[in-house]
Amino acid sequence: MAAAPTVLIMGPPGAGKGTQAAHLVVAYDLAHLSTGDLLRAAVAAGTDAGQAAQRYMDAGDLVPDEVIVAMLVDAVRALPSERGLLLDGFPRTRAQAETLEAALAELDRGVDVVLDIRVPDDVIIERLSGRWICRTCQTPYNVNTRPPKTPGTCDLDGGELFQRSDDTSDAVATRLEVYRTQTEPVAAFYEQRGCLVRIDGNHPADDVRGALDEAIGAVRA
Ligand code: AP5
Description:
By secondary structure, this protein is α/β, with parallel strands linked by helices. Helices cover about 50% and strands about 15% of the residues. Strands 2-3-1-4-8 form a five-stranded parallel sheet, sandwiched between helices. The protein has a three-stranded antiparallel sheet with strand order 6-5-7. β5 and β6 form a beta hairpin. The mean pLDDT is about 95. It binds BIS(adenosine)-5'-pentaphosphate. BIS(adenosine)-5'-pentaphosphate binds next to α1, α2, α3, β6 and α8. BIS(adenosine)-5'-pentaphosphate (AP5) binds next to α1, α2, α3, β6 and α8.
């Protein structure tokens, strides 16, 4: 694996990408770029990109490639070249994957490993109905599996916890369908390139973390 690796974490909504990203960025000293977090920040700030994105996000649809690609590529280019990178929730379409490949090549980088976390739909629906997120640091909690010590408050920074507007049952159903039709082909794209590792995410978070560490260890060996 490169000294400054590029790691992708993908999987359906609620697979545990954000939960596991929090571990990976610390364990491997990676800069974390989550397109979902970038978009929610843009919506909250009322930027042009945020205004363009909001209705797609609330409905559970993908934000158009031209909005998301510009945002992501600018953020990647702004990183120091010696910094490893974790991309979370990008790419989600074949066009995004091809654009990313070209942008990384310009920076003399490539994708080192793609961690593809898989979880059955019924588990996802249950997880997302119980999810609460810190407004300040984005840490995800779950009323069933990872409750905060004080209801409504982040254990780490005392931030307020909120439920996402796209965690409604209608939006989750759309997100799952969009994942199947538009994002699963991205996994096939990386499988052809030989850098995809499938991870069974239907286990306790600590076990999933162990599987991710093993996958990264195998690439580094
Ligand atoms: P985004 O924010 O990326 O959402 P997502 O992919 O739907 O994934 P989530 O954040 O919902 O889930 P996660 O996998 O991070 O799970 P988490 O760790 O929180 O994108 C949102 C929207 O932005 C998209 O729908 C789209 O509109 C737009 N967008 C973003 N990127 C885009 C792109 N590239 N192109 C176009 N549009 C884009 O875990 C979920 C819950 O489960 C939590 O409560 C957690 O505590 C719990 N949990 C986690 N792991 C476990 C475990 N192992 N066992 C039990 N519970 C667990």
